[in-house]
Design brief:
alpha+beta; five-stranded mixed β-sheet
């Protein structure tokens, strides 16, 4: 919405050349990001989620960085697009919430999606203030939240999806931020 308002304002001010330049800069950046997603992320739903979260992050003044080494091929049936969206969406949303109170220009969230023959990796890192130990031990408990009432189901759903896929969750958190690494086996021997 802010981008459209900027274009509208430039047109109303008679700054037609600047409006064209602004649109060209915006579309070139967006097009490059979309091309990266289409080339490297085989899941259309995951690519769409990353595009949507990128736009949301930009609106919130957060730098959402998708690691250029991110590559994700086809997903196993026990960890399908729906499971990936639940995991990735919740992790990114929590990371963005963790950095929201930092000064503008300091808010960073990094995402890596990777896959090899053995595992699928989902890593989300933020530079928020981290979590104290008593919170860290409860984050996957259904209904537990440090936010307003009615929250506390996202990370419980993440854990459920990871457990169903025989995966692992590693959380590291300190004063410099939080890193959540999800590992899902690429073949299930259960």
């Amino acid at each position: 919405m802010n981008k459209l308002q900027a274009v509208s304002g430039l047109i109303q001010l008679g700054e037609y050349a600047e409006a064209r330049n602004y649109i060209t800069r915006l579309t070139a950046k967006e097009q490059s990001f979309i091309e990266f997603l289409l080339k490297n992320i085989a899941s259309p739903a995951a690519a769409g989620l990353l595009e949507g979260k990128s736009a949301e992050a930009q609106e919130r003044g957060i730098a959402l960085n998708i690691d250029p080494k991110s590559r994700l091929g086809s997903l196993p049936t026990y960890f399908d697009e729906n499971a990936l969206i639940i995991v990735l969406g919740n992790l990114i949303e929590n990371a963005m919430d963790a950095v929201q109170d930092l000064p503008p220009g300091k808010r960073q969230v990094n995402v890596l999606l990777a896959q090899d023959e053995a595992e699928i990796f989902v890593a989300v890192t933020d530079n928020g203030g981290g979590m104290p130990e008593h919170v860290l031990t409860q984050i996957f408990t259904r209904g537990f939240s440090t936010k307003e009432l009615g929250r506390g189901y996202g990370l419980a759903n993440v854990k459920l999806r990871v457990d169903l896929a025989s995966g692992q969750i590693d959380v590291q958190s300190d004063a410099t931020g939080t890193r959540v690494l999800i590992r899902i086996p690429n073949s299930q021997s259960v």
